[in-house]
Design goal:
- The complex is a heterodimer of chains A (183) and B (312).
- In chain A, helix 1 (12-30) crosses helix 2 (44-60).
- Helices cover 29% and strands 25% of the residues of chain A.
- By secondary structure, chain A is α/β, with parallel strands linked by helices.
- Chain B has eleven helices and nine strands.
- In chain B, the strands form two sheets. Chain B has a five-stranded parallel β-sheet with strand order 7-6-5-8-9, with helices on one face. In chain B, strands 2-1-3-4 form a four-stranded parallel β-sheet, with helices on both faces.
- In chain B, helix 4 links the parallel strand 3 (100-105) and strand 4 (123-129).
- At the A-B interface, helix 3 of A face helix 1 and helix 11 of B.
Chain lengths: 183, 312
């Protein structure tokens, strides 16, 4: 990647502050943590969900059931690309019925991933409410979907690439934006 | 990958991808809605020229759980000569818009012919052809072994598998030898010389005539059905002698290592290649093999049909 055209928009301390704030907002919105279930969308949403879980447990002293939700089989663009490998789905043993499910993803862009996640949730159970938490909202929605909890609103042009790096998958924490068409 | 005709079509990474995908799809069984929208609008034809219960139902359930439309085409009893009938049937299926054809045929090579003759544009999955291959059976066997012996991930490196019985008439044995070799397992075929195919010494496995010397070092043993319907000669003196020399009874089961598992592709001849008490023991995984078959076939259908249409 050409570094002159890449800039860092969030560093590691920005990310951890954003996650703490999101955790506070989630708890405030739900009036507590005991009805929550956190579901991360692979890959990076899973690590973010785990960090939010640990932040909520520092605030409330309660470990929210946390899992992952792979949406590959619900995508609307399956036929545009070769078949992809599946990522793990793990629904906490408490289930999602009558709970407040917080979907967690790294970047919100077209909204199609979230649409697929809502379909997937529908086949697993009936939550009381579904909320969406994202680290970065970069705009350009193609569906009527909006996030409830946002780490950073990032105005971008369609051609720019937003990349979230996390220690768990990439070795360090940062959000970068890269101009041009190729990542 | 467009077709699945032979276990040899798969390299190690592809085989592991199918097994990993099947492992994720297996969790569907625990859900209240056992259905995924992935293959909505696609048509899967089960084209069965030969009797089959579990394989046909397994493919049907797998396709339906992925929301594909399923057509069961029972071709048995056709009086047209074989070559012509396969071609005409294929052209009919193509006209009906089949995205995939799952074929079981009594003649070895029929799926290959169907896939390569240019009669149809969809994917072809071999569900057993003559005495040649049965790749999805090998995949579900590997899946079952991996789950019990390797905690359900990675390959089968170093696993020692014995395949015992009627290797000559078994498409399951050939597909298993090829796939297990790809996954790093070590296979020993055990059979009387009359039930081993010509050229077996070129297969990537060991051959033994003596089950008792092989038993103590196996991690998994697969008992093959003695296929009476394919036997037009005397291959062994009597059923009793066969079961004495090559059958798995409780005395032989006791000589297996404690962790070793027992597989059988079904349908079983109880009292012939496997005794009833062994078949019903908790170490026998036949029922689980059937359940895993659905997950593995879902994985194959998803990987063949779920993505972009591939050209040859």
């Amino acid at each position: 990647m050409d570094s002159s055209r890449t800039r860092i928009v969030l560093d590691d301390s920005d990310i951890s502050r954003a996650i703490r704030r999101i955790a506070h907002e989630i708890v405030e919105n739900a009036k507590g943590a005991d009805e929550l279930v956190l579901l991360g969308i692979p890959t990076r949403g899973v690590a973010l969900a785990e960090r939010i879980r640990s932040a909520i447990s520092e605030i409330e002293g309660y470990s929210v059931p946390t899992g992952s939700l792979d949406i590959t089989l619900y995508r609307d663009d399956l036929r545009l690309r070769p078949a992809r490998a599946l990522e793990p789905t793990s629904i906490p043993s408490e289930g999602i019925d009558d709970r407040i499910v917080i979907l967690v993803d790294d970047v919100l862009f077209s909204g199609r991933t979230v649409r697929a996640a809502l379909d997937a949730l529908n086949d697993i159970g009936r939550p009381r409410a579904v909320r969406l938490a994202v680290l970065v909202d970069r705009g350009h929605r193609e569906l009527p979907i909006r996030p409830d909890f946002v780490g950073k609103n990032l105005p971008t042009s369609v051609g720019e690439q937003v990349r979230v790096n996390l220690v768990e998958s990439d070795g360090s924490d940062s959000v970068t934006i890269h101009e041009g068409d190729s990542a | 990958m467009k077709h699945l005709l032979s276990a040899a079509d798969l390299d190690r990474d592809q085989a592991i991808m199918i097994l990993d995908t099947a492992a994720e799809l297996a969790s569907l069984t625990d859900r209240s809605v056992k259905k995924l929208p992935t293959l909505r609008g696609r048509t899967v034809v089960n084209l069965f020229f030969e009797d089959s219960t579990r394989t046909r139902i397994s493919f049907e359930v797998a396709a339906k759980r992925l929301s594909a439309d399923v057509i069961n085409f029972a071709a048995k009893g056709s009086s047209v000569s074989k070559g012509e009938s396969l071609k005409d049937t294929a052209l009919t299926l193509e006209a009906m818009g089949a995205d995939a054809v799952v074929i079981r045929h009594n003649l070895s090579g029929a799926p290959h012919r169907l896939a390569t003759a240019g009669w149809i544009g969809g994917s072809v999955v071999n569900a057993g052809d003559g005495t040649h291959e049965h790749p999805t059976q090998a995949l579900l066997d590997a899946f079952t072994m991996r789950k019990h012996l390797r905690n359900g991930s990675g390959d089968l490196d170093g696993v020692r598998v014995g395949i015992v019985g009627d290797v000559l008439h078994s498409r399951v044995a050939r597909s298993n030898v090829l796939l297990l070799r790809t996954l790093g397992a070590h296979v020993t075929l055990v059979a009387p010389p009359t039930l081993l195919p010509l050229g077996v010494e070129t297969w990537p496995c060991d051959v033994s005539y003596d089950i008792d010397s092989v038993l103590p070092r196996l991690d998994a043993i697969m008992m093959l059905r003695v296929q009476g319907e394919r036997m037009h000669d005397a291959y062994f003196p009597s059923a009793l002698e066969y079961s004495r020399l090559y059958g798995l009874d409780s005395a032989r089961m006791a000589r297996l290592p404690e962790h070793a598992v027992i597989l059988h592709p079904g349908p079983m001849n109880r009292g012939m290649e496997i005794s009833a008490d062994v078949a019903d023991s908790p170490r026998s995984l036949m029922v689980e093999q059937v359940a895993n078959g659905v997950s593995v076939r879902m994985a194959v259908l998803y990987l063949l049909l779920g993505g972009m249409k591939e050209n040859d």
